[in-house]
Amino acid sequence: MSxxxxxxxxxxxxxxxxxILAFSIPLLLGNVLQQMYNMVDSIVVGNYVGTIALAAxxxxxxxxxxxxxxxxxxxxxAAVIISQYFGAGNLKKVSxxxxxIYTAGIVGAVPVAAVGILLSGPLLRLINTPxxxxxxxxxxxxxxxxxMIFSLGxxxxxxxxxxLGDSKTPxxxxxxxxxxxxxxxxxxxxxxxxxxxxVAVATILAQAxxxxxxxxxxxxxxxxxxxxxxxFSFDKELFRKIIKLGLPNGLQxxxxxxxxLALQSLVNSYGSDFMAGFNGANKIDMFAFFPAQSFGMALxxxxxxxxxxxKMHRVKEGLRATMVMSILCGIGAMALVLVWGPNMMHxxxxxxxxxxxxxxxxxxxxxxxxxxxVMNTFLSVLRGAGDMxxxxxxxLLSLWLIRLPMAYLMAHFFGxxxxxxxxxxxxxxxxxxxxxxxxxxxxxxxxxxxxxxPEEHLEKDE
Length: 462
Description:
Elements: H1 16-48, H2 51-88, H3 91-126, H4 131-146, H5 148-163, H6 168-191, H7 196-221, H8 236-268, H9 272-308, H10 313-345, H11 352-367, H12 369-384, H13 389-414, H14 422-440
């Protein structure tokens, strides 16, 4: 790939800081919209249905995420391969990888949805869901699982486009989904009085429409891609590579979700007010985490393309630029949440107990935010390089060996208000592990694709 030639989505030439920032801005806006998408559900339910319904919607989400985490991880593995093939200039393999992951994802969505529907009740019992929130939580989960194929397809579109260096089109699709979700939330809940069911139906319908629009734009914008829902193709060797990269990431997300459920179980044991506060605060703290997450996602694509192009020297430059931007934005986000947190919590509930529970979560997590920003930056480099195993080990050890035991111990000895200091303990261990491994250089040998790979090439779109 010639550096003198400007290629759509090419991140192998030009200032790393400018490229990562430009790629991150649509991702950041998209993350904000996605969270607004989720917050509207909680705000409408919390204010027009009640605190119990708010707790029900929030407690069902970790279970839903756990059930689809494996597929999301495999999709992330495919995205790394796509970005490396794109960096190497091999668009034939890009197309084949997209077809393969779409085939595997759509076919696999059906059994995942069925299992999710069947296990929704038992899993809610397992995490100590209060009886007064159980039926609403189960109904919400059943509807979301029934529309799982729409969510999966919508997220696959975004992952593919981002791996090709396009973060603007996914933002457009998310804007469509978010706008539709807001309108349908208001109609189904306030006008039709469908309660929690209305929120779930609005979510899957919005994602379904955004998925169809995304397929149209994907095929139109990238002439070398030909995604057809009626005619899939499947490359076993590419799928093997996808599984090799994606399975560790999927297992990480799945086991991380199980850990989140263990923490949710502890939170649930303190009643619906504490549940509602925790779930509302979760929505708020995501805004603070978005800058670091967006920069990390951009860095993963940047690293993948540059390793595919054989430009390892740019990886270090990208790491430095991302670290500076993540820390600076993190300081601002911390200040904003710590000062305005109580006002933000009032969006979800006017109950003093709910607001206090939310702040019991937000304060300790925000104090430790910069640890997360540093850890996330280093792990994003490793993922872009194709090393999915070490980030999995780091995340799981920091969660299972530090955060969870610490949370239960803090609750036992000091009270529920101190549970969330456990986040900082986990991130501290994660930072230490990530830094040591990065400077060991072992991740440099994990690339799936290199510029010298003798594969069939196609000319990139201008």
